[in-house]
Amino acid sequence: MTDDASRKGGRPPVDEATRARIVELARAGMSRKAIHRETGVGATTVSRVCRDAQPPVSFERKQTAAAVAARSYDAKAERARLSQRMLAEANAALDRLHAPHVVVGWYRGDSFEHELAHPTSGDVKNYMLAAAVAVDKHIALERHDGSDLELSAVDQFILYVSRGILA
Length: 167
Fold this sequence. Notes:
Elements: H1 16-27, H2 32-39, H3 43-52, H4 61-95, E1 101-107, E2 110-116, H5 121-146, H6 153-166
Antiparallel strand pairs: 1-2
Helix pairs in contact: 4-5, 4-6
């Protein structure tokens, strides 16, 4: 095997600072592709630099699968928070149906406000539509995370892999 300095053609050798950064990122758990994007060094070279490091750093599939599973769980938690916010927004829209309503008008260049006991029929329609959409999205988010049968194929794979790793 030739060292980087004696190579003919190809890319220039990777300097020591970049090598150290690659190893640091790999030890922090960053994937090979993420390190490639971060440093601009090819993925194959990233692997070689990590393999040659002392002690060597490897990109094991278990480590990658664990990171994917962690991201999957984080996304599920975020969807749960979003689902609850959608339900809260639906309730807020429905509450506006029975609250006083201010309308703003213009007459000869002057604006005026008038308070109505209830929203106008157009506003009732908009509040109902907003509530219906928010409830629909809440249900869709709950359904997405509620059953393995309704998960996408990718999400099912991540779930099964994470069960195997974390069990």
